[in-house]
Amino acid sequence: MTTRRPFVGGNWKMNTDRAGASALARGVVDGLVGLQGVDVAVFPPFPYLLTVASILRERGSSIRLGAQDASDQPDGALTGEVSLAMLRDCGVSVVLTGHSERRHVLGEGETIVHAKTRAALAADLECVLCVGEKLDEREAGRTNHVCEEQVRLGLREVPPEHVDRLTIAYEPVWAIGTGRTASPADAQDAQRHIRGVLADLYGNDAASRIRIMYGGSVKASNARELFAQADVDGGLIGGASLKATEFVAIVKAAAGVGAKAATL
Ligand code: PEP
After folding, report:
1. Inter-residue contact 153 to 114 (CB < 8 Å)
2. Atom nearest to 218 CA in ligand 1
3. CB within 8 A of 28, min separation 6: which ones?
4. Each residue of 157-169: pLDDT tens digit?
5. Looking at domain 3-28+38-261, which of 2.60.40.10, 3.20.20.70, 1.10.760.10, 3.40.50.360 is its CATH number?
6. Are 243 and 25 a contacting pair, CB within 8 Å?
7. Protein residue closest via CA to atom 4 of ligand 1
8. Atom number of ligand 1 nearest to Cα 169
9. Which of 29, 42, 121, 157 has its CA 20 to 30 A from that of 251?
10. What is the DSSP letter of 63?
11. Is the CB of 238 inside a 6 Å radius of any atom of ligand 1?
């Protein structure tokens, strides 16, 4: 029977310094020693990837190293960009695409999100494609429509053989970094709809295997209830991932909930 192991990611965004990133990585690794049944990734800022990679390696940790962004281009005259091959060279195995701050603060449109998602998966990396509605879209009853469009556009021309490396993060924009969290029922409704879209694109079996995380002001105190929902397979954590004890508690909540059986 298909089951989905929970997956929890810590998105450090443009936070920490070298000493702080090292201390945070050590705290997370030490706090999770021996914990099973959950996949974990951390997404440090680019300049600290190698530092965090060496901490994970020297402690024999299974925590994956993630990148918050990547270019869709292989190389060339693109000042400031970082390629997927460079990231892999630094030990990265998973990449975020379509994060709401890149879409709505930094102006990345669907064309770029799509190109990055397709390129990351084609490069044999795991990809977490983030989708979610803005507050006015939720209030206008357009949540499912917006998420569906972002999933369909982000995954255009992504072949079925690549989607086993795909995770979707449902992150309502109004809940990111605001302290406001979607109710567990609202998260479940949106994520159920997203799974239906994945089933339409790739069939029930594939859609049953793809993990869908929730993100948006997840804390240790609300994690368990969110992760317990049938289509919530862990979380993408921003602010609360910057404190090792808090992030460790969130990961333990996901492990406590355990794997989800396919419901399609
Ligand atoms: C995020 O950055 O993806 C996020 C969900 O942030 P926060 O947990 O701070 O809302």
Report:
1. yes
2. 8
3. 10, 40, 42, 63, 244, 247, 248
4. 999 999 999 999 9
5. 3.20.20.70
6. no
7. 238
8. 3
9. 121
10. P
11. yes
With a cut of 70, which residues of the chain have pLDDT below it? 1
Using the CB atoms, write b or e for 43-61: b if 16+ within 10 Å. bbbbebbeebbebbeeeeb
pLDDT (0 to 100) of residue 1: 66
Task: Establish whether residue 236 lines the binding site of ligand 1, counting it when its CB lies within 6 angstroms of any ligand atom.
Answer: yes
pLDDT at residue number 31: 98
Ligand 1 binding pocket includes 237 (Cβ within 6 Å): yes
Structure tokens at 225: 């209830």
Domain boundaries, the chain: 3-28+38-261
Q: Is 40 helix (H, G, I), strand (E, B) or coil?
A: strand
Among residues 209, 114, 112, 130, the alpha carbon closest in space to that of 168 is found at 130
4 in helix, strand or coil?
strand
Pairing between β-strand 7-11 and β-strand 39-43 as defined by DSSP bridges: parallel
Q: Which two tokens stand for residue 18?
A: 């070298």
The pTM assigned to this predicted structure is 0.97
What are the C-alpha distances in Å from 253 to residues 24, 124, 222?
19, 29, 9
Q: 3 is written with which tokens?
A: 């089951």
Give every CB contact of residue 245 below 8 A, 6+ residues apart in sequence.
Answer: 27, 31
